[in-house]
Design brief:
With 418 residues, this protein is of the alpha/beta class. The chain is built from 15 helices and 12 strands.
Amino acid sequence: MSYLIYVILDIDPEAWNKMMQLGRKLADERGAEADFYYTGSPRDAYTGADYVIITIFTSGLDAMGHDLKIPEDYGIYQTVGDTVGPGGWARGLRNMPVFAQMARDIDKYSDNAIALNYMNPMSVLTKDFCKVSGLRTVGLCHGIFEVYRLLMDISNLKSEDEIKVCFGGINHFFRVVDMRIKGEDGYRLLSEKMNGRPFAELVTEVYVDGVGYHSDKWVTSELLEFYGYLPYVADRHISEFLPFYLTRDIQKLEKYKLKRTPVEDRRRYKQLGMDKLNALLAGKEKLPDKRSREIAADIIDSFVNKKEIIDAVNLPNTGQVSNLPRGSIAETLGIVNSTGFNPVRVGDLPEQILNLVMPHVINQDMIVEAGLEGDLDKALWALYNDPLCSHLTLPEVKEMGIRLLKANKQYLPQFTGL
């Protein structure tokens, strides 16, 4: 691409200052023609913007601490807490006012900018954006990349190009409904590799996810065995969508080798990241010579240079997953080119998978309605129906929900009377 202008909109002076330094350093080393600016004004940031990449975190780690700690009093031990369950519910509601205002501002000041959302809960916040604005919006997550990586490891492959998958569902909870490995039936090859053993035993190296926690894939293995389809292979995420693993008995986490992400660890990882960044800026460490697998740059390249890519996207369901509600946010492959985002058709999810996914789709849509309307009843209805709350009485779920909302009160102007 030719000359680029990057404008950073942030409320944290340390963060935007260091990002500007890093951007300039990378541009200089790569010989890229680019300028970097900071502003605290949404109007200045969005005026003339062609693309907006969203990576905000409303309220920081203090609020996330409430998301995880309060549910523990009710026998819910979330491993991540950013997508579903009480933690994902609270996180979604407190981020929605900020996202909604951002959508309105981009709609108002930009000339039809394209919004790329990286924030969780992905489905809720992407739909929030779509409901409030007419912007072309996509949610981006690296989940399917992890599936590719694991299949490559199991099959001793060197390139993703040797694997073709058809997958569908919602963010962090999709299923691979069909796969081809080097042109052959992937499920047949996988069954032959397993030879009666659990899927987890095929994982030939310690697997590390994006925040540094390994998983032995026993949840993935069990879901493949009992439901017949390979899920997203991040056990810490998929376990939160189901009532089997994270409630009542904390010892179940050890049985399935599930590692939680306490806020204390997140603070430590944040500091390690900052130390790494400072070393890069000081020239004590070399800048990375390999790009990440994230696709925001590829998407922009596709629009600017009229190219085409196929990759994972979260988009409003227009029929790509035919037995999920229209308008809900579905995660599938998508074709990205100068015409926009075009989801690849999956067809129907298998019935046994649909039964697992549908409650979350309904809940996520209800959370969006509740957050936009300030409807406390709708917000609580979604929480009552969450599988992680299924062992509780309704009064207990309501009590927990009100506690979470009160802990986030300063970020919830849409709910009066808390």
